[in-house]
């Protein structure tokens, strides 16, 4: 057990030196303070450390979050980039080099934005009326509303989002991109009443992921009033998905292989894997 050097305390009384009066040893591993005094029973005091490894990790995460929040204010000027992270760090009182806390640079900023938007969507969906969920059919209107609500969260950064999408296709950012996308579609399915535990669980989520990414691309080029063009596009894609689901229910053996192949190709396209070498 590693110990810090012992500290010997002396006491001078009437010009006489008594030593050692007290010996203190400290164990880093156990955070224990042992107190030895002449003529007294040894005492052991358990110290509560002021800072633990978990506290330090949380402290670092809080710093990173503060930087990311402020960095979003600079995205329209300097994009989803290290520069925005540096400006964000300076805005909260840290040196610009604090962007080194983010190994993926702008990819980490995009990831944070996606996580934040997903959390906001979940909070909104929790308050939506659930009357339609009692029906057996797919709650198309709720799914449509969820997709549109999530897409419109991009509105403040719409002009810069094509670059953000490109950043997400970089090899080191693909895992985070996939994780947030799967989290998004899983939350939408769950809060629109999907409690399936069979093969349909995968089909619905992969299908919804494809719908969302296709709608995202359409939304970036949509100049219609109140984004009515994007809403019509989403509605049409959901209707197509319903037809696929009906076909699966009628003849799952014949349709499943083609559906899985299409789902796999869609997944590769939406992750940009077909363009990665």
From TrEMBL:
Species lineage: Eukaryota, Metazoa, Ecdysozoa, Arthropoda, Hexapoda
Function per UniProt: Membrane-associated protein that warps the membrane surface to access and bind aromatic isoprenes with high specificity, including ubiquinone (CoQ) isoprene intermediates and presents them directly to Coq7, therefore facilitating the Coq7-mediated hydroxylase step. Participates in the biosynthesis of coenzyme Q, also named ubiquinone, an essential lipid-soluble electron transporter for aerobic cellular respiration.
Similarity field: Belongs to the COQ9 family.
Endpoints of the signal sequence: none
Protein name: Ubiquinone biosynthesis protein
Main location (coarse class): mitochondrion
Keyword Isomerase: no
Residue ranges occupied by any COQ9 C-terminal domain in the UniProt entry: 175-242
Domain Ubiquinone biosynthesis protein COQ9 HTH: 60-90
Keyword Mitochondrion: yes
Keyword line: Lipid-binding, Mitochondrion, Transit peptide, Ubiquinone biosynthesis
Gene3D superfamilies: Tetracycline Repressor, domain 2
């Amino acid at each position: 057990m590693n110990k810090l050097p012992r500290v010997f305390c002396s006491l001078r009384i009437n010009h006489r030196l008594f030593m050692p009066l007290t010996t203190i040893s400290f164990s880093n591993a156990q955070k224990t303070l042992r107190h030895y005094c002449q003529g007294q029973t040894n005492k052991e005091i358990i110290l509560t450390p002021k800072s633990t490894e978990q506290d330090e990790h949380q402290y670092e995460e809080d710093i990173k979050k503060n930087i990311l929040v402020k960095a979003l204010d600079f995205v329209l000027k300097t994009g989803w980039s290290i520069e925005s992270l540096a400006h964000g760090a300076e805005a909260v009182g840290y040196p610009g080099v604090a962007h080194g806390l983010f190994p993926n640079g702008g990819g980490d900023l995009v990831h944070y934005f996606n996580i934040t938007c997903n959390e906001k969507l979940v909070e909104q969906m929790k308050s939506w009326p659930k009357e339609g969920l009692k029906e057996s059919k797919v709650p198309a209107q709720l799914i449509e509303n969820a997709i549109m609500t999530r897409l419109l969260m991009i509105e403040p950064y719409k002009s810069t989002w094509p670059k953000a999408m490109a950043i997400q296709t970089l090899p080191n950012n693909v895992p985070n991109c996939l994780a947030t996308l799967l989290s998004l579609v899983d939350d939408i399915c769950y809060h629109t009443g999907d409690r399936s535990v069979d093969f349909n669980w995968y089909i619905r989520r992969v299908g919804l992921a494809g719908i969302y990414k296709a709608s995202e691309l359409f939304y970036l080029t949509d100049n219609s009033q109140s984004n009515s063009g994007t809403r019509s596009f989403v509605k049409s894609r959901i209707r197509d998905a319903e037809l696929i689901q009906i076909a699966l229910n009628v003849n799952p053996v014949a349709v499943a292989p083609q559906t899985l192949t299409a789902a796999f190709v869609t997944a590769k396209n939406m992750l940009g894997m077909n363009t990665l070498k």
